């Protein structure tokens, strides 16, 4: 059974290490930045959302567990004015994939959100991440737009 629980301050540094590594690779791949610049941007995003570590009310970092074993992370932020939440990061460790944990974690989040009156979940999926896109579509998400970018030449 999947459980979502708030991340502890002792778990936060490991999350930061994972997030900076993962997100900086995505930034470099999607936007053509050098890895040094991508790492800098990933650090800035994390610091902007968690300026005091886990001491914030706007964003929530959750640990995903199965049988009390940590199998992933989920970062989201609730917007009460439009009764929605936005998922910033959703990650199942590679050793725990292909067991239905992703679907179960989304279902657990939905239950938690419904109980407090949240009516919609929003997120962004990188174009190359077909695995995530397939999961989200299987659990009922629909495509609501496209992010696009164009790298300008320096001539």
UniProtKB/TrEMBL annotation:
Endpoints of the signal sequence: none
InterPro entries, per the entry: Acyl_CoA_acyltransferase, GNAT_dom, N-acetyltransferase_domain
Domain N-acetyltransferase: 2-155
Transmembrane as UniProt keyword: no
Domain of life: Bacteria
Classification via Gene3D superfamilies: 3.40.630.30
Key words, A-Z: Transferase
A Pfam family hit: Acetyltransf_1
SUPFAM superfamilies per UniProt: Acyl-CoA N-acyltransferases (Nat)
GO MF term (any one): acyltransferase activity, transferring groups other than amino-acyl groups
Name the UniProt record assigns to this protein: GNAT family N-acetyltransferase
Classification lineage: Bacteria, Pseudomonadati, Pseudomonadota, Gammaproteobacteria, Thiotrichales
